[in-house]
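WARN  no MSA supplied for this record, continuing single-sequence
INFO  ligand: heme C
INFO  echoing inputs
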Amino acid sequence: MKKFAFAFLALFLPFTAQAAGGEHNPYIVDAPISLTDKAQLQRGAQLFVNYCFGCHSLKYVRYERMANDLDIPVELLAGNLMINTDKVGSPMLNGLDPAQAKKWFGAPPPDLSLEAKLRGADWVYSYLISFYEDPSRPWGVNNHVFPNVGMPHVMADMQRTLPEEEFKAKMADITAFLEYTAEPIQVTRMVVGGFVIGFLLVLLIFAWLMKREFWKDVH
Ligand code: HEC
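INFO  complex generated
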């Protein structure tokens, strides 16, 4: 049995070692986001549509579902957030041709529905605040978190004109929104999980009382 346990541990050791010892990029910082902050998510959705949606689609997100989840009135959708469609049940696609985009940027802009799951919210936030000027690159910018990235710094004007804290707050809003799109059910899942654990704990008390009752005469 002991041997088996060691073999089992050995199987997982390489993963834990990698997770603990991997090179840490000092530019990766915690993303100040909260999925229960609807206002933050709404601001993030608006910013995403204005600054990112032209290049990045959200193919696993439907407008109507997003509006319902984020408490955005459906009437507001059509005038403000929807492009390329008038159907609230459509997925959030843009008209970008991936082949053309690859020519322009060197790599097509990936769909970002699941980006926060793929990279983690901290990575996404850090990436958005880590563009810097680099005349040797095609767009004159580079990124500390994603070296030699093909994406232009589309928020350059915003970063230049806003106080740093405000700019970072906006990037956090977008990150929160992408964390939402990566798992829309996340908040519900955690609430339900809490109830389930609570229920099991209460059940445990009764199960224990019953066990005591059943076994009290057995010696
Ligand atoms: C002008 C087009 C364009 C716009 C607008 C744009 N991006 Fe990008 N983005 C790209 C391209 C192209 C890449 C792929 C770069 C590469 O792989 O080198 C990319 C990559 C990314 C990545 C990394 C994807 C990965 O590989 O994991 C993230 C995250 C991202 N963009 C977020 C955003 C956000 C958030 C916005 C809005 C604030 C935005 N982008 C606006 C073109 C754009």
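Residues 16-21 have pLDDT under 50 and may be disordered.
INFO  checksum written, moving to next record
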